Amino acid sequence: MDELKAALKVLLADTFVMYFKSHTYHWNVEGMFFTEYHKFFGGLYEELHESVDSIAEHIRACADDYAPMSLMELYNYKTMSEDTVKPNNVTDMLNNLSAANNVIIADLEKVFAIGEKLNNQGLLEFIAGRLDTHHKHGWMLRASAKNTGA
Q1: What is the CATH number for 92?
Q2: In which domain, by residue range, is 44 found?
Q3: Cα Rg for the chain, rounded, in angstroms?
Q4: Quick check: is 150 in a domain?
Q5: Count of domains observed in the chain
Q6: 85 occurs within a structural domain
Q7: Cα–Cα distance between 9 and 31 in angstroms, integer?
């Protein structure tokens, strides 16, 4: 059970970092296609924000543990890097989010493998849905980064 607790907390922290990245890109995107990317990043951060709550609830329900209670505790579980400066252009933003998304896919695959060992069907269903969502995010991020001209 400790392995599941730790893996879910990493998933929560990394998802929160990707949520925050996409939110800051929503705030700070510029350029000729500002409106489209502002909406795109907005939709992404809204979906990720919703998922953060579900992941925290699975920490409580499946791992019988408490979700992190502070930003510092959450920060200590993250495995992906944060931006320290504003990316140069929308292509960099999209590529950064694509890399973050790949980290989350790896996190989800780890939780899925643990859920299989525990034969936790509810957790497996939830994680499979998140994997589908993140594979779609990955496709959309990769497709959006092509030919951005930046």
Answers
A1: 1.20.1260.10
A2: 2-145
A3: 16
A4: no
A5: 1
A6: yes
A7: 36
Written as one string, the DSSP assignment of the chain is -HHHHHHHHHHHHHHHHHHHHHHHHHHH--STTHHHHHHHHHHHHHHHHHHHHHHHHHHHHHS--PPP-SHHHHHHH--SPPPSS--SSHHHHHHHHHHHHHHHHHHHHHHHHHHHHHT-HHHHHHHHHHHHHHHHHHHHHHHHHTT---
- Sequence-separated (6 or more) residues with CB below 8 Å from residue 41: 22, 23, 25, 26, 29, 93
Per-residue pLDDT of the chain (150 residues; tens, 9 = 90+): 899 999 999 999 999 999 999 999 999 999 999 999 999 999 999 999 999 999 999 999 998 999 999 999 999 999 999 998 999 999 999 999 999 999 999 999 999 999 999 999 999 999 999 999 999 999 999 999 987 655
129 belongs to a structural domain: yes
pTM exceeds 0.70, yes or no: yes
